[in-house]
Amino acid sequence: MLNKSISTQRLTLIVGGILLIIKFLAYFLTDSNTILTDALESIVNVVAGAFGLFSLSVSALPKDENHPYGHGKIEFISAAVEGILIIIAGLLILAKSAYNLNYPAPVHDVDTGLWIVAVAGGINYLLGVYVERVGKSNSSLVLVASGEHLKSDGYSSFGMVIGLAIIFFTDFLWLDSVIAIVFGVIIIFAGTKVIKSALSGIMDEVDYELVSEIVKVLNQNRHPDFIDIHNLRVIKYGAALHIDCHITIPWYFNTVQAHDQVKNLEDLLKLNTEKPVEFFIHVDPCLPLCCLSCIKEDCPERKSDFQQKISWTTENIMLNKKHGL
Question: Cα separation of 213 and 144, whole Å?
């Protein structure tokens, strides 16, 4: 998985470098702020791509004494750096475009620049779709962020093509700076979104969609000896997951039986999770109050009749207490 992510990021970096050279040649040919906007965003693509490649290489390192959970967290740092670079590029675009609104500069060879931006934008969009797909299949935030950025670059290029076409047919030079300002703002918002996603990972914010998938698996494969599961927490380390929880089992089970149930739970989640995952599972003995919702029919120590099964949800499974009626 990581080898695929690294090779994909390397491809992104190579293509980004080629497009960067082409776009700056187009800018020097046309003196267009709109094309400069595209070129500056390509600088971000290359720098972020280089740092992303470095972070994926570090993330692939095995666990060691100083990093017992692995090195996957660096992917969130990489995504945050990419977001900051995107915002800086957007601010530079706004500054230059605002200046040229007051002091407009002539634009040359708009038709040539239009075709260059169109081709580069199409390449970026198609590459972004591919990179994002690989990132999602490999649970790589670095690739997902790169893919989203490349796709937004493609959208921006499409808008710039429309703007350049208008300038070509109307000769309204001020539109060049206005279009650049609009896309500068869009780029800043895209960078903010990437930073927010990265900070969520660094701060171990709950991924409710992921927790919901885990809860669905547990409900669909509920074993009678899994009397209760609570205090469920999921932490992301790059492409890997760390899951810890409390499982309540019959109090009269010996240590071998308790270990078997923990192993059953681990195997169940590993089988239904595409990502590498490790576990820390705490075992709790059942209490008399558990009998009311316990689905174990052959229990020799039942203290009261079964009344109602409690379904696990994203809300109750994360609480640090046994479920009861």
Answer: 20
Give pTM, 2 decimals: 0.70
Sheet containing strand 277-285, strands side by side: 228-237, 240-249, 277-285
12: enclosing H helix or E strand: helix 2-30
Token digits of residue 273: 């999770």
Instruction: Tally Cβ neighbours within 10 Å of residue 154.
Output: 19
More confident residue, 276 or 292: 292
302 within a domain of the structure (yes/no): no
| Beta-carbon-side half-sphere exposure of residue 209 (alpha carbons within 13 Å) | 0
Give the CATH number of the domain where residue 33 resides: 1.20.1510.10
Residue 158 near residue 85, CB atoms below 8 Å? no
Examine the domain organization and report whether 193 and 212 are in the same domain: no
- pLDDT, tens digit (0-9, with 9 covering 90-100), for 38-63: 787 778 778 878 888 888 888 878 88
Task: Give residue-wise pLDDT tens across range 85-109.
Answer: 878 877 877 887 787 777 766 667 7
Q: Per-residue DSSP letters for 134-194?
A: HHHHTT-HHHHHHHHHHHHHHHHHHHHHHHHHHHHHH--THHHHHHHHHHHHHHHHHHHHH
The encoded tokens of residue 190 equal 């895209």
